[in-house]
Specification:
Elements: H1 22-29, E1 35-36, H2 48-56, H3 70-80, E2 87-90, H4 92-104, E3 110-115, H5 120-127, E4 131-136, H6 144-150, E5 155-161, H7 173-182, E6 188-192, H8 209-212, E7 216-221, E8 234-238, H9 240-247, H10 257-268, H11 270-294, E9 298-299, E10 305-309, H12 316-321, E11 324-325, E12 327-328, E13 337-341, H13 345-371
Parallel strand pairs: 1-11, 3-4, 3-5, 5-6, 6-7
Antiparallel strand pairs: 2-8, 7-8, 9-10, 10-13, 12-13
Helix pairs in contact: 2-10, 4-5, 11-13
The chain binds pyridoxal-5'-phosphate (PLP).
Length: 374
């Protein structure tokens, strides 16, 4: 039977490989217990207030939610000192990334994407029949100099993931400011700040950038620090005309009621946020200390994840046998590396135990190779 004729360009889009859900991993590998450290989720869960509040609100579940996220909008506009018109909400920042491309990228126009970085930028570019222009990282960091060199008349969007997923590197304040000042004003800069709360050193207030530059949108998410990944809610901050343009391609009721309420109560729970940040810093420090001892190279991270070079031999199965799922960074073009989300302290210790067995195996092999003269 002949296939329905698809829109041109759809054939070029490879299905996006999102991190698998916990349940599907358990089924696939026949495991009853899994420590999932492959999706940069929050292993501390979310604020206990979320469940309490949603339980009291079930009389609302049959109604459509507020299409404007009014209460959350007011809360965030106060928190960030921006007008409510500077904000747009999405079904996770995944959706906001799509909306930015839908609003601004036309057929044959270029979108500049550091590589490796978050994979969805390339996917949405292809959805619009745009041309992805990949710019390799330099020393695991976004190469702003190279990006400036390749901007052309056809460039419409530049995607800057800061801190960058999967490397965890961040641009210095001066470097970011200098870069933004040199990008032509007709080019949209999407500053994806999914991990901005986890920076090693306090970062400058990037929200001020939108007051000076009309061509920037910042993307933030409730999935990471707040642990609300299952609810699907993120937001963008930008000049009001930019936001108004993106709103034109947004589906009218894109953020569900529970997500809005969960986000509202999460903003108030300072103790939970502090515990997440504290756990993240302690977890990363534990990794740094142990990785130094084991001799595995790693990249210091500004996110809730860490890139570790374990070598050519695949290690996914060794982790799986221990009930742990990590991300093989070969998927991002970093062969021989894994990306591990920071877990609870005990989970991090378990990962380190597995790394120890891998290190021992590798040392044994190197020793054997030497002894047998290979
Ligand atoms: C850099 C980056 N941007 C956006 C997202 C999507 O986040 P959300 O859950 O808000 O859709 C992720 C998810 O991991 C991410 O790593």
């Amino acid at each position: 039977m002949p296939m329905v004729r698809e829109r041109s360009g759809v054939d070029k889009i490879a299905p996006y490989q999102a991190a698998k859900s916990l349940e599907s991993i358990k089924r696939e590998y026949g495991l009853s217990q899994v420590i999932k450290l492959a999706g940069n989720e929050n292993r501390m869960g979310c604020s206990a207030r979320v469940g309490e509040v949603l339980n009291q609100l079930n009389s609302q579940f049959a109604f459509y939610p507020d299409p404007n996220c009014t209460i959350l909008r007011e809360r965030l506009s106060t928190l960030h000192h921006v007008s409510s018109e500077n904000l747009i909400f999405g079904n996770g920042s995944f959706e906001l990334i799509s909306l930015a491309a839908h609003a601004f990228l036309g057929e044959g126009e270029e979108s500049v994407i550091p590589d490796p970085s978050f994979g969805w930028y390339r996917n949405v570019t292809l959805q619009m029949n745009g041309t992805p222009v990949m710019v390799p990282l330099k020393d695991f960091t976004i190469d702003t100099g190279r990006i400036l060199e390749i901007i052309s008349e056809r460039t419409k969007i530049i995607w800057i993931c800061n801190p960058n997923n999967p490397t965890g590197t961040i641009l210095a304040e001066d470097q970011l400011n200098d870069f933004i000042n040199r990008v032509p004003k007709h080019v949209l800069i999407v500053l994806d700040e999914a991990y901005i709360d986890f920076t090693e050193e306090p970062y400058f207030n990037t929200i001020d950038l939108i007051k000076e530059h009309k061509n920037i949108i910042l993307l933030r998410t409730f999935s990471k620090l707040y642990g609300l990944a299952s609810f699907r809610i993120g937001y963008g901050i930008g000049d009001k005309e930019l936001i108004e343009r993106i709103n034109r391609v947004r589906s009218p009721i894109n953020v569900n009621f529970s997500a809005q309420k969960a986000a509202e109560v999460s903003l108030d729970d300072e103790a939970f946020k502090n515990s997440v940040l504290d756990n993240n810093r302690k977890g990363l420090n534990l990794y740094y200390t142990e990785l130094e001892k084991l001799g595995f190279p790693y990249i210091r991270s500004n996110g809730n994840f860490l890139l570790i070079q374990t070598g050519k031999e695949p290690v996914d199965n060794t982790f799986l046998q221990n009930g742990i799922i990590v991300r093989n960074a070969g998927e991002f073009g970093l062969d021989g590396w894994i990306r591990v989300s920071v877990g609870t302290y005990e989970e991090n210790e378990k990962v380190i135990e597995v790394l120890k067995t891998i290190a021992e195996r590798q040392t044994g092999r190197r020793k054997n190779d030497y002894e047998t003269g290979i």
